[in-house]
Structures are given as structure tokens and as C-alpha cells.
Amino acid sequence: MSAEHAIPVFACASPDETPTFYQAIGFEMTHRQLKPYVYLAVKRGGFELHFVGGGKPNPRGESATCLVMVDAVEPHHRAIADALKASLGRVPTAGLPRISRLRKGQSRFTLVDPTGNSILFIARDEPEYEYPDAEAWSKLSPMERALETAANFRDVRGMDAAAAKVLDLALTRDAGAPPEERARVLNTRVELALAMNDEGRARSAREELASIDLTDEERGQLRVEVRAVEEIERMRS
Predict the structure, then answer these.
(1) End of a domain among 104, 123, 142?
(2) Which of 92, 123, 154 is the last residue before a domain boundary?
(3) pTM across the whole model
């Protein structure tokens, strides 16, 4: 077995808030030094994170990124989300700190700490994302293309705001889309609005969604999107 061992070193905007956050989600503090300079270390399972003092909180989660390869992402997401809810009274999906949602079938999620450092948990057997080729893309309707693009932003890149803009543009441009397609986009838009704590947009999307006349069969086809909304509401409650 190789003896090499890599340890990410992140910036730490607050030597008090950072260890409190990590300990609350199951990390063990293994080193704490405040003078002559700040240096912290935490450990959870088989990986460690070290921190040096300095920097300012980065709400975009772009201070630094660390990849954590795991056998399965669901147990890690569940444990961290439950710990956040126990510590904060809710599961934060926007702002700092936060954790991204984990939709059924997803193979990655992102945890962002109080400084804006991102820890990306990825399943070792994650399949390569396959964007539709030109032929498949040409067969999609404008709404279907918007959903495909938004899913890539949301699930692969972790860019909820960009996904929301794609859907809002589609809703504006394609007012004459089939009701079931518009309903699917609106359901997804509700999920994104809730994730970003945009209560006003979530409310307006729900109001428009309620005005669409769908058959029972068409409503049944939206169960994946509906479950995603229910899951994020559960996380926020």
C-alpha cells in the first residue's frame, strides 16, 4: 500500500465558527492552534481537513474545493443533513454554511462551510454525465431543452441560480408550450426557489402551476419533480 497521504488545507475566516461547524457534523478536532498563527485540523472517517487563518467568507462557495470519493453518497448526505438540522434547527441549502440537495439517483453533493470552502462528495462508480448529442437534442422541445440544461447546472455543477435563469427564460419565451411540459418546468422552478430561499418566486411558480389544468395521468408523470419539492420542504422544516 502506498504511504502517500494528501491533506487539503483550506482558508479559515473564523477560528471559532469553523471548528464548531465541523464538530457539529461529526468531525473530530485533532489540532487547534491560534498563535502565532491560526492552524486547525479536523478528521472524519478516512479523511482530514486542515485550515489556516485568513480570508473572508465567500458565499459563492469558491474559496477552495476538495473532492471526497466514497462508496455511496446517500449515507454521508443523510448523516450530515441530520447533524445540520440538529445543530441549526434546519438544513441550510443557501447561504453559508449549506449542503446541496441529493435527488434520487444523484451520485454527488456539495457541502459548503462557513468560509465558503466546498467539499464535493462523489460516488466512486459515478457514471459519466452524457449530454444529449446533436440528433437527440434536435428532437427535444424548447421546454425539454431547458430542463436538460437546468439539470446539468443543478446536479453536475451545483449552480442553482444559473438553472433558475434557464427555466425562467424558457417560461417567458415558450408561453404556448404543452401544459404538462410547462408544469414540469414550474415544479422544478419551485424546487430551485426553495433551495435558494426565494419564497416569492416559489409562491408565484406554485400559483401558476395551480392554474394549469392537468389530467390525473399527467400529474402522475410529475411525481419525480413533486418528490424533489417535498424533500427540500422536509429539509427546511
Answers:
(1) 123
(2) 123
(3) 0.84
CA nearest to 107, candidates 130, 123, 124: 123
State whether 81 and 40 are in the same domain: yes
If one counts every other C-beta atom within 10 angstroms of the C-beta of residue 28, the result is: 12
| CB distance 110 to 50 below 8 Å | no
Based on the fold, state whether residues 119 and 187 are members of the same structural domain: no
- Asked, for residue 128, whether it belongs to a domain, the answer is no
CA angle 25–103–57, rounded 5-degree value: 45
CATH code: domain of residue 77: 3.10.180.10
Distance CA 45, CA 64 (A): 21
Q: Can you give the residue range of the structural domain that contains 191?
A: 134-236
DSSP 113-170: -TT-EEEEEEETTPPPP----HHHHHTS-HHHHHHHHHHIIIIIS--HHHHHHHHHHH
**pLDDT tens over the chain, length 237 residues:** 567 889 999 999 999 999 999 999 999 999 999 999 999 999 998 899 999 998 899 888 888 999 999 999 999 999 999 999 999 999 999 899 999 988 888 899 999 999 999 999 999 998 887 778 889 999 999 999 999 999 999 888 888 999 999 999 999 999 899 999 999 999 999 999 999 999 999 999 999 999 999 998 988 888 888 888 888 888 777
Q: Is residue 145 domain-shared with residue 225, that is, in the same domain? A: yes
Cα–Cα dist 210/57, whole Å: 39
The total domain count for the chain is 2
Written as one letter, the residue type at 86 is A
Secondary structure of residue 98 in the 3-state scheme: strand
